UniProtKB/TrEMBL annotation:
This is Tubulin polyglutamylase ttll7. It comes from the Eukaryota. The gene is TTLL7_2.
Amino acid sequence: ILDNWKYHKSKVASYWLVKLDSTKQRKVLDIVRTNVRSALQRIWREPDVESLHLYRLFNRIFNRLLWSHGQGLWNCFSNTGSSWETIFSKSSEVVSPRELQCCRRLVQLCRDCLLVVYKFVSESRGSLMGLSPEWDDTR
């Protein structure tokens, strides 16, 4: 997709910004959130990752990426528009260079996840009507 971005850009934008409602957008990012949460629990051997400063930073980023019906994540695909990093520059919270590097990786994972979901849906359905019905099963 990235190799032929000019062709796919408008299709990915339409899929993310128009065809997916906020619940389905959140489900896409929840793929990353769940995996990152699991990794943090293993790395820090901490069952309550909400108490970790890094996880709280990640939550702020997830919220920013979903901002304005997904515009936050979409802005990460271009060099224009407001960046997710502004949430840190406008706050008095101290973010270490290593934490910022982790946050950048998180955003990259979210971008990649969107592209994988887009590719999966476009190939499996032949159209981009939305995520598969199994995604609505919350078990």
